[in-house]
Q: What sequence folds into this?
């Protein structure tokens, strides 16, 4: 009997390791966040974290440079991988450089989390889009994940609005083809064309810090760039993503990882150095910062 129990236990442990997931908050609001194992449990530079203006160092970097992000992508692939909705298959290389980055990074895939993984001044947002980039000096993502300069992720937060977001809307239009469990891991073509630019608001101000992937293996290879400017999305739109299935008749209602310890890491709030340009652009930037600081002041008064 004991022998059988041991076999059963090791089998369970094994299947748990390969089938990681998120707590089922429908069943139990207080369900503890599952242990994912390895670095996810033992790492000291894990993501996501709460980003707060008061705790951040002030930084100034040269502008981030985006190549081909404005190109309309006519043949994007979409997949429900059981953990998120993921887009890939970009027509040309989308290259990110500049800022504090030491080399060129190319877009590998884009996926989303509902609700947001990062919080800003303790505020959670309804949606966070991750644009995952690989350092070009590494041949693929599995290699890049072994190095601390291997991956850069741009995190874009979306705020609740009553105006539907057009770019998110064009992704949602093709969701029906991948929602069901039997369509999981079957890629489909995104019917509408969209440019990656459409998913990115202003990049003039952002938080940056050294962290990890927010899914197993939780590799500590990520330079995070979380933009402070946000895009609108309606709750109806976010609810469409919550209908995708990860098991037979089981919908993925939440796919955000719990907040991780900052562990004395430097979080830098970057204001891009502006090339001399119109005053209108500068005042837009300071307005964004003031709004952010306003939130911090409100919270300290609570
Ligand atoms: C990634 O690149 C390395 C080195 O070229 C190679 O050995 C490995 O098989 C590649 N992995 C994948 C998943 O393509
Ligand atoms: Zn992500």
A:
């Amino acid at each position: 009997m004991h022998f059988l129990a041991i076999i059963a236990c090791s089998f369970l442990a094994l299947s748990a390791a390969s089938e990681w997931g998120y707590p089922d908050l429908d069943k139990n609001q207080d369900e503890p966040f599952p242990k994912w194992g390895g670095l996810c449990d033992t790492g000291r530079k894990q993501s996501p974290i709460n980003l707060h203006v008061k705790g951040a160092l002030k930084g100034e970097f040269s502008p981030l440079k985006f190549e081909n992000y404005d190109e309309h992508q006519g043949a994007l692939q979409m997949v429900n991988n059981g953990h998120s909705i993921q887009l890939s298959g970009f027509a040309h290389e989308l290259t990110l450089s500049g800022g504090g980055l030491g080399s060129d990074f190319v877009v590998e895939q884009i996926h989303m989390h509902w609700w947001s993984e990062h919080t800003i001044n303790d505020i959670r947002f309804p949606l966070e889009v991750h644009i995952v980039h690989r350092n070009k000096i590494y041949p693929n993502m599995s290699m890049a994940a072994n190095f601390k300069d291997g991956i850069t992720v741009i995190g874009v937060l979306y705020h609740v609005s009553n105006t539907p977001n057009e770019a998110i809307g064009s992704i949602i239009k093709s969701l029906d083809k991948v929602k069901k469990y039997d369509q999981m891991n079957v890629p489909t073509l995104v019917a509408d064309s969209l440019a990656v630019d459409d998913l990115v608001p202003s990049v003039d101000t952002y938080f940056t810090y050294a962290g990890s992937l927010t899914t197993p293996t939780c590799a500590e290879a990520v330079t995070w760039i979380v933009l402070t400017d946000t895009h609108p999305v309606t709750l109806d739109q976010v609810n469409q993503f919550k209908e995708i299935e990860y098991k037979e008749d089981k919908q993925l209602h939440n796919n955000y990882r719990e907040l991780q310890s900052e562990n004395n890491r430097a979080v830098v709030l970057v204001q891009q150095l502006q090339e001399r340009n119109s005053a209108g652009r500068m005042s837009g930037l300071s307005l964004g910062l003031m709004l952010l600081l306003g939130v911090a002041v409100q919270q300290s008064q609570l």
About this structure: Residues 44 and 263 are 7 Å apart (CA to CA).
